[in-house]
Structures are given as structure tokens and as C-alpha cells.
Amino acid sequence: MLRTIKHFLLWLGSVALGVVLLLTVVMGVSYEFTTEGSCPASAVQFGGTELEANGWCWQVPLIGGKLDKVFASPVTLTVQKLGTLYTAHPAFTLPDWYSYGPLTITDSAGNVVYEGTAAAYDEFLFPANGEYKAELTVWRLPETMTATQFEGGSTGALCQNPGLEKPAKPTGWYHYSFRFTLQASAEVELSAERVEQGGVVGLRICGMAGDTAPTVETDLGTVQCVRAADGWRAYIPAAYNASSGGHEVNVTVNGEVISRSIIVLPKDFGTVEVEPEPAASDAANTEFKNSVWPLYEQPAREKLWQGGFVCPAESYTTLVDYGQVKVENGQQGSRSNSTMLYTIPGEPCRAPAAGVVVLAKELALTGNTVVIDHGCGMRSYLYGLQTLSVSQGQTVEKGQAVGALGEELTMDYKLGSKSVNPWLLFQTGGGLFWKEN
User: What is the pTM of this model?
Assistant: First the structure.
């Protein structure tokens, strides 16, 4: 019996030794056949140019993922020269395996202009044209691992695999150092080169460095630029009384003047019979000027509307339309810059689009008055409400009640101080909705 047990133990020991020897051989073969080619490809581009890694460290799992073989090359002082880039925001192309990438960009004087990640770089805007240097490290890490937990090592060394993912994958980083010269020129694009009286032309400015707002000069009205995701946006009004023919638009960006032209086409808005109105008192006119006129020149806030506007009154009859020539006692008078609607008293007066209430008060000239700033210089002026339900400074959404209607509602939609055709806004037509997203 004892002899049988002894033989069994000897056999068991031989098997265990064989297994250890087999595993050692397999691990040795795995170690020898795991080469630097097992590291992820260094596939990073900037501005369309492939970057050259000037240092790296990778831990590549061996069979079973219990141990990692290290491949490393210390970071050198080599700086890749990319030459001149002509786009204001050269883009990064990152590999599929990317999980984290600290990035630092400095200018020619050594000042840090960006410090963050390669993924967040999309929101960065270069302060000016000039020479820049960038340092980037692109990591591949398991989801629950941070860069500070990475052991590193020297080529050929063995490290314990962190065991944070199955199957185990290479963990490590590539480092890049590169210089480039930014020489970007602004691009100016119009939504249309021809527009009817009452319409709006959208203006898009992109491709420039710096965060100084461009200036726009045109005889069509005051135009203010507002920051957008792709650069800057502005909207140019062609009022009902804008002279037909060509109008020059001069855009100044970082000292560079770019000119475009817009042709305004005449539109026949027709005529309308109206009853003579009693003259307003000097006090009423002065109150209106002091309350409303300053709003025309207020700084433009960010764009707040999305999609088409809605008519403030759901049920109405048009009494005087935008652009119509008013006829009193058979005599032609002035043209209307606003639209007067016959409405049902007590029904809600709706906000035409999202915005901020910049005026909500009763005026002697226009009765209960609400003015909503929709951004980019676009404002709605609503006159003659029966009651008010909003206050100055309040944010409103499209369709939200701002008060109750009376028998008549006068609505005026202005870009700066120039009135535009409201029906185009309700139909989502024209440059106000161009490339909206």
C-alpha cells in the first residue's frame, strides 16, 4: 500500500514538473515571439500630417495576460517640423485605441496657450497667427485605470498585468513633439447674394485665429457679429425701404478687410386703407423713444432661437401688413414697418421664439409693450397687449404666453433698428435660418 502511494506521489510530482516545464517553454516562446510589432500603431495626425513618435512605453500582455513584456524608448528632444498650416484650427486625427491624451501648446515666447486634452482641443481657438510648439502624449489605458497607475519599465522587462480587462490588451503611450506656423485667413460666406426687400442675409465668418469679434459695415443697417461653433455669425437686414440694387458689405477680421456685395430686389407690398390716427403727445413720443430706441443699439447676445418663429396670435385677421403703403382719405402716406393684427381679446400672446425679455411695461404710445431679445441683434416688439405676464430679464421659450391679447396687436421684428418681414420668420425662410446648426 505504502509503495503504491509512493509511486503515485512520484508520478504526480513528475506531472507537475512537466506542466511547469511546459508553461516555462510556452512563456519563453511567447516572450520571444512578442515583439514591438505587437504595440498599437502610432496613428496620430495633426492638420493632415502624420506625427512621428519621439518616445513611447508599452506593456504588451503575454499568453494568459498574467505578465506583460515592456517595450520602451525614452522621450528625446527631437521636435518634428510641420511647416506652415493655413487653417485656423488644424484638427487631430486620433487612433481608435485612444483613451487619454494630455496636450500642451505654447507660442513662440513660451507662453502656454492651451493645456488640456487632445479630445477637448476641438473647443480651442488659437489667439493669433504665428509659431507654436505642441507636446502630446497619447495613452491607451483600461477604462478603470489612470496614467499614474502605469508602471512603465525598460525594454524586455516583465511586469505584472493589472488584470483590469479581459482579454488583456497593450497598455501604454506614445509621445509627440512638433512645431508649426499658423497662417490662417478668414473666410466670409453669405447665405445669398440677392435678397428681396424685407428679407435677411446670413453671414458666416470662419477660418481666422483670435477671439476678437469681426466688424461688419454696410449701409443696410447696423450688423453685430456673435460667436458660433464654426466661427462668427451675423445677420444683415434688407428692410422694406432698403434701396434696390447693389450694397457693399465690408468685413474686417484681424485688420484684413474682406468685401462682399448684396443685391436688394424691389418688392411690391401693396397698399392698405387706414383711418387717420390722432397725433400722439410729445410726452408719449419722448417716453417711447427713451424706452424703446436704446434697445436698437444694445450689444448682440448669443443666438437663442431655433427653427421658425411662431405668430404671437393664434387666431387673427391682418389689418395692416408689413411694407404696405397706408392710404388715408385717398392719399398715399408712409409705409408700415410693422404688422397690425385684429385679435381675440384675452387669448394668449405668444413669444415668437426663445429669448430674453428686455422690456415689459405700459407705454402711453403703444400700450402694454413686450420686447424679446432672441440674440444676434434680432428682437420682437409686441405692442397693444391687454395684460402682461412677464417681466424684464425673464427668459421665455417659443410659444410661451407673455401676456393677453387685446383687440389689436402690432408686431415689429427688427435686426438692430431695421424691421424685417415677419412672414418669412414664421415660414422658416431666408438667411435667419441658414446653416442654423
Answer: 0.73
Instruction: Give the pLDDT of residue 421.
Output: 97
CA dihedral 38, 40, 42, 48 (to 10 degrees): 140
Long-range pairs for 158-165 at CB < 8 Å and ≥24 separation? 158/31, 158/67, 158/68, 158/69, 158/70, 159/59, 159/67, 159/68, 159/70, 160/66, 160/67, 160/68, 161/59, 161/61, 161/65, 161/66, 161/67, 161/68, 163/65
Cβ pair 287, 365 in contact under 8 A:
yes
Q: Please say whether the beta carbons of 326 and 422 come within 8 A.
A: no
Find out whether 195 and 206 touch, Cβ atoms under 8 Å. no
The yes-or-no verdict on residue 128 having pLDDT over 50 is yes
> In the chain, what's the furthest Cα-to-Cα distance?
133
DSSP bridge partners of 106: 112, 133
Q: What is the pLDDT of residue 10?
A: 62
Q: Which of 227, 207, 212, 209 is nearest to 127 (CA)?
A: 209
Q: Is residue 378 a contact partner of residue 309, using CB atoms and an 8 Å limit? A: no
Residue in 339, 340, 345 with CA at minimum distance from that of residue 385: 345
347-396 pLDDT tens trace: 999 999 999 999 999 999 999 999 999 999 999 999 999 999 999 999 99
Q: Which of 370, 330, 331 is nearest to 351 (CA)?
A: 370
User: What are the distances in angstroms from CA 356 to CA 45, 163, 309, 393, 394?
Assistant: 43, 54, 15, 6, 6
Hey, CA dihedral for 314, 316, 319, 325, is it positive or negative?
Answer: positive
Reading the block at residue 317, the C-alpha cell is 385677421
Peptide bond into 278 cis (omega under 30): no
